[in-house]
Design a protein that fits this description.
The complex is a heterodimer. By secondary structure, chain A is mostly helical. Chain A folds into two domains: 70 residues; 67 residues, no CATH class. Chain A is 66% helix and 0% strand. Chain A has six helices and no strands. The longest helix of chain A has 27 residues. Chain A is flat. The N and C termini of chain A lie far apart (61 Å). In chain B, α3 packs parallel to α14. The longest helix of chain B is centred in the N-terminal third of the chain and has 49 residues. Chain B is globular, with a radius of gyration of 24 Å. The chains are: A mainly alpha, B mainly alpha. The interface between A and B is large, with 84 and 94 residues.
Chain lengths: 184, 523
């Protein structure tokens, strides 16, 4: 019983409280005394109170669990029903495999995130066609695509095809006006 | 009670004119195919495939749009069974239970048979649920046509409670996610007073945050980042041989009662607002294990286990659509996306939809039936080829999805601001996953928020702002009261369970101490 409840729950709880407080501050300028049925701040106020309460509760529950040495599966996809024994075993095996997996490649994750943000900016400021082609090729290389001549040629053809389909599908087919940009 | 023009019988005939066009039929076929491909890739969920492709349906007619989206949905649900059976990795969360008996079958060389059982079970479960949808939909819509603010408020609250309850190991985190969804949904001008709320003086936010932009970020872009985080782009290829798919036809007759029972369970669970196919398949598998004549074989490659889970998760689709179409309350995150797509098309799901646009409703049912037929045909004839999807290089696939997300969110309103919303939503989605906060409640709350708020405020206005009188209206409503009681039970149940577990834990800890003491005394 040495593993402690995750500290990220503490952080989540604290951030939730902060967000709730920010909401309460944002709606504090709304006039008080309006009929409750037509008060535009009614829901945001309730939500602010709810967020602060839930955030505090999460912090308290995490601290209590930590004090008692209780661990809990922390899984967004989990099913709260009593899983059959076989499913539970399969999950445990999956978790064990994940625990044994090599560490996260933060360089690749960060590189991809940067490429996505740069693409989102460039596509509608510099030019959709060029940016899309460059992004697909670059992101694929960031993800570790083989750099042999044959593989790069395939990648270039794939990037060109994706660019063409995306342009035709999202601009021509949907009749969305592409922004005026220096590049195509 | 209002009598609606759409009767159960006419719902299977009226919409043929809308569906039986070469374009629509081709779209249904193509969308099931696309859904299967995406669903077959572990990690890429049905939610993601539907969310990313929603923008492409904007120029389609409502019938075509819903046919495409439901086709992708059904296809992805089935597609997820393939990796579950062949490599023990569920393609979508709803296919978790298919791994239990599907993979052992595959290991003993019966992968083709297992896939065949999955296809046939999914098809029969899907068709059953559509038939139930066609007959129960008008009845439910007719019943709901008498709903007032109190009833709608209660049902929307129930939907949020259920999804907070079922979507993760921590109900508290589910509630936080739902509250955040409601908060995002309340950004923009207040519908009743026109006053701007939480807009940070950004003009683009006066109209509110675009639902689809958020969904594309949360379920599309963030999932790509999560896959890379989990090193899925480094996955080795899984060459698979699939043979004897058709041998599964012989299994259908012995499994008829399993399929029938699981179809009923799947449809019923799917119809509960907030529950979904994953829960449906877990319950169905558990029930089958209890009723099985050979429970010791379950988990070791029993066709009945695979059939029970696959039938139920596909049957849940019709159940989820039942509340979505007839009440306007989505059954889960995916039907919330469908609801958002319908609203963009100018279609408002709810009781009036059955009354005013029965032909459209009928076309939705027929499209679903045809999508199930496509699933059967493609699944049985193309299973051998779909196994190759497992080898699609992720280094090409992920950039493709990112482009679809970014271009799709721009195409929503021709605005780069929506692209920014998608990026922020992706960051939130990624952080949610890392913190173990479920995303589905946020999405459902985003679409349920306006329903919840407008009905709450209308209820309060009708009672001159008297909170107690409004609570009285809710408590005396024949629908509102039971729904609120169920909601309260859902909130209290985890606390009771936790208290019981604590007591059991304490008893377990005390037992050895007592034994030790007794043994010490004996000595």
């Amino acid at each position: 019983m040495t593993t402690l409840a995750p500290s990220k729950d503490l952080l989540s709880g604290a951030l939730t409280v902060a967000l709730g407080a920010a909401v309460m501050w944002a709606v504090s300028e709304f006039p008080i005394g309006a009929p409750v049925g037509s008060d535009p701040a009614l829901l945001p106020r309730l939500l602010g109170i709810g967020l602060i309460s839930c955030g505090l509760l999460l912090v308290v529950v995490t601290l209590v669990r930590r004090h008692l040495g209780i661990t809990q599966a922390d899984d967004a996809d989990s099913v709260p029903l009593d899983l059959p024994e076989e499913a539970r075993r399969a999950r445990e095996a999956d978790r064990a495999a994940q625990a044994d997996a090599p560490p996260v490649e933060w360089g690749v994750v960060g590189g991809l995130c940067l490429a996505v943000v740069a693409y989102a900016v460039a596509a509608f400021q510099l030019g959709f066609v060029v940016s899309t082609f460059v992004f697909v090729a670059l992101a694929s290389l960031v993800l570790g695509r083989d750099r042999s001549r044959r593989s790069l040629l395939t990648l270039a053809a794939f990037a060109a095809a994706v660019t063409a389909v995306a342009y035709l599908g999202f601009f021509e087919l949907l009749s969305v006006r592409a922004p005026d940009t220096p590049l195509p | 009670m209002t009598v609606l023009t759409a009767s159960a019988g006419s719902l299977y005939t009226e919409g043929w004119a809308l569906v039986a066009t070469p374009t629509t039929l081709l779209l249904i076929l193509a969308s099931v195919l696309v859904g299967m491909v995406v669903g077959a890739i572990p990690g890429l969920t049905a939610n993601m495939s539907v969310a990313v492709l929603v923008p492409l349906t904007f120029t389609m007619s409502p019938t075509e749009a819903i046919a495409v989206l439901t086709g992708i949905w059904l296809g992805a649900m089935y597609g997820g069974t393939l990796p579950a059976i062949l490599i023990n990795m569920p393609g979508t969360p709803a296919d978790l239970m298919s791994t239990i008996d599907g993979y052992p079958m595959s290991r003993r060389g019966e992968g083709g048979r297992a896939i065949g059982i999955g296809v046939l079970s999914s098809f029969l479960g899907g068709v059953f649920s559509v038939l139930v949808l066609g007959s129960a939909g008008p009845v439910l819509a007719s019943f709901a046509s008498n709903f007032g603010s109190a009833e709608y408020f209660a049902v929307a609250l129930l939907g949020l409670s259920v999804i907070a309850f079922v979507s993760g190991s921590s109900m508290l985190k589910g509630i936080i996610s739902a509250l955040l969804g409601l908060l995002v949904g309340s950004i923009g001008r207040d519908v009743m007073t026109g006053q701007s709320r939480l807009t940070l003086d950004q003009q683009e936010l006066y109209g509110g945050v675009d639902f689809i932009a958020v969904v594309v970020g949360i379920f599309g872009l963030s999932e790509v980042i999560e896959q890379v985080y989990a090193r899925q782009h480094r996955l080795a290829e899984h060459p698979q041989q699939v043979r004897n798919v058709w041998s599964a036809v012989k299994d259908v007759l012995p499994l008829r009662w399993v399929i029938a029972r699981s179809s009923v369970i799947g449809t019923m669970v799917g119809a509960i607002p907030g529950a979904g196919p994953t829960i449906a398949s877990v319950i169905s598998y558990g029930t089958q294990k209890q009723l099985s004549k050979h429970p010791e074989e379950m988990g070791k490659g029993a066709p009945e286990g695979l059939s029970a889970s696959d039938t139920a998760n596909n049957a849940a689709t019709g159940g989820s659509l039942l509340t979505t179409l007839s009440l306007g309350i989505p059954g889960d995150a995916l039907t919330a996306i469908l609801l958002g797509a319908l609203i963009i098309q100018g279609v408002q799901p709810g009781p009036l939809l059955f009354e005013n646009e029965s032909e459209l409703v009928s076309s939705i049912f027929i499209s679903l039936l045809l999508a199930n037929v496509c699933l059967l045909l493609i699944g049985m004839f193309g299973a051998r080829h779909f196994a190759k999807v497992l080898n699609v290089p992720r280094t090409l696939l992920y950039p493709l999805i990112v482009v679809a997300c970014i271009a799709g969110s721009y195409a929503l309103n021709g605005s780069a601001f929506d692209v920014g919303v998608t990026l922020v939503a992706a960051l939130v989605g990624f952080l949610f996953s890392r913190a173990g906060i479920p995303k589905a409640p946020l999405v459902l709350a985003l679409i349920l928020g306006p329903i919840l708020e407008s009905n709450l405020r209308r209820l309060l206005s009708l009672n001159d702002g008297d909170v107690l009188a409004s609570a009285g209206t809710l408590a005396t409503s024949p629908v509102g009261l039971p729904v609120l009681v169920v909601t309260a039970i859902l909130f209290l149940l985890p606390m009771v369970t936790a208290a019981r577990e604590r007591r059991a834990h304490r008893a377990g800890a005390d037992a050895p101490r007592q034994t030790r003491t007794r043994s010490h005394e004996e000595h």
